[in-house]
Write a structure and sequence with these properties.
143 residues, 37% helix, alpha/beta, single chain, five-stranded mixed sheet
Length: 143
């Protein structure tokens, strides 16, 4: 999560919402890491989570990422939570809850929705204060 926080800080410095994501394989090795890049790429789908999932899928030559854990500083939005389900991740670990767009407990629970064909273990609140502080500083400066 410390690497994800470092990437989130970099995102804020580049004018993007401070979110960082790290993907770890079943051996505990970091296999992809990135930050939000929506502003840089002018792409609404360039969330940190989407970037690491896409990078890893290309690298292994398969969209199924079973055995992987996603660490992210902010609770995934519906798009990212859905992508994690489609990628068949084992676990998502996140920092700050997102009460405006969170889709891994706060507003929705896409990763554990019984109607879907894959379910993901969730761990919330890891380094939540640090994640929340980055977001509050970023949005405080914008207002």
């Amino acid at each position: 999560m410390e690497l994800a926080l470092s990437l989130a800080t970099e995102a804020a410095e580049e004018g993007d919402v401070p979110v960082g994501a790290v993907l770890v394989d079943g051996k505990g090795e970091v296999v992809a890491a990135d930050r939000n890049r929506r502003e840089e790429l002018r792409d609404p789908t360039a969330h940190a989570e989407m970037l690491v999932l896409s990078r890893r899928a290309r690298e292994v030559g398969d969209w199924r990422l079973t055995g992987h854990t996603l660490y992210v500083t902010l609770e995934p939005c519906p798009m990212c939570a859905g992508a994690a389900v489609w990628a068949r991740l084992d676990r998502i670990v996140y920092g700050a809850a997102d009460f405006k767009a969170g889709a891994a407990w706060s507003l929705y629970n896409i990763p554990q929705d019984k109607r879907l064909n894959h379910h993901i273990d969730l761990v919330e609140g890891v380094m939540a204060e640090e994640s929340r502080a980055l977001l509050e500083d970023f949005f405080g400066d914008k207002r």
